[in-house]
Amino acid sequence: MTSVLSLVDSHCHIAGPEFAADLEAVVAKAREAGVRQALVILAAEDDAELGRAHQVVGLWPEVRLSVGVHPHNAGPFAADPAGAAHLTGQGLAGLAQARAVGEIGLDYHYDHAPRDVQQRVFAEQIQLAQRRGLPIVIHTREAEDDTFAVLGEAGPVAGVFHCFTGDVRMARRALDAGFHVSLSGIVTFPRATELKAVAAFVPGDRLLVETDSPYLAPVPHRGVRNEPAYISRVCAVVAELRHTTAEAVAEQTSANFVRLFRP
Fold it and tell me: What pLDDT is attached to residue 208?
């Protein structure tokens, strides 16, 4: 009989509307697959999602939460970037299981918000995390240099580059800045050659794995809604790339999660 791994999904969105109809079944499937804990990401400006977080915790008491204003949603705070941090702070205050600020950062691929506004909203939320003594969960897409510039100006803060899609050089920059690197189902894609190199490169004590559910389902689940149970596939592929066992990756990434998010 095959033993079940003890896994942690370090980034998922199961309080989103995509899971509202069958959340209980999704949680049961994850726990059956050995996922003992997860970090659930919440949008600070989405009252419905913040409300569903209580349902998630009720079904899965071991989950922990992160709250932030995503760069896509930074636009309404153009005249008051500090308002984004205030809203995030309110969300954190209402959730006993909150352990991080995020996801926050910069996204220049879609440019849903002006870049200077994204940067100011990002900086304000970093300051909030520093005041609260919390790690941050960074989203960065096609904005590497500006992301590191904002971080450099902000000063010391712990956290993770979630759903990392950069190359080894960028991973080294993240590590040098003191951050963890989290790999998603993208690492299972056949053409993700640079990311596969990153998976082999990142030191074990800075590595995390995630699903980013409901997005980016790993091979062989492409084309369906992603969910925390599929973290086992990400873990297995990362283990292959690191020439080790899935058990070793599961144990190391779980320990890293506990150390970073203090759940």
Answer: 98
DSSP letter, residue 156: -
pLDDT at position 1 over 50:
no
Indicate the number of domains in the chain: 1
Which tokens is 219 given? Answer: 């091979």
Residue with tokens 């596969």: 196
Q: Which residue has the tokens 């949008």?
A: 43
CB 188 within 8 A of CB 233: yes
- Give the residue carrying structure tokens 């283990």: 239
Identify whether 2 is part of a domain.
Answer: no
- Residue 152 sits in a domain whose CATH number is 3.20.20.140
101 beta partners = 67, 136
- Tracing tokens 């240099």 back to the chain, one arrives at 145
Residue with token string 């951050």: 179
> What are 177-233's pLDDT values in tens digits?
999 999 999 999 999 999 999 999 999 999 999 999 999 999 999 999 999 999 999
- Do residues 148 and 115 lie in contact, with contact meaning Cβ atoms separated by under 8 Å? no
How far apart are the C-alpha atoms of 64 and 235, rounded to whole Å? 20
Helix (H), strand (E) at residue 114: none
Report the C-alpha dihedral over residues 167, 168, 169, 175, rounded to 10 degrees: 120
Is position 239 within any domain? yes
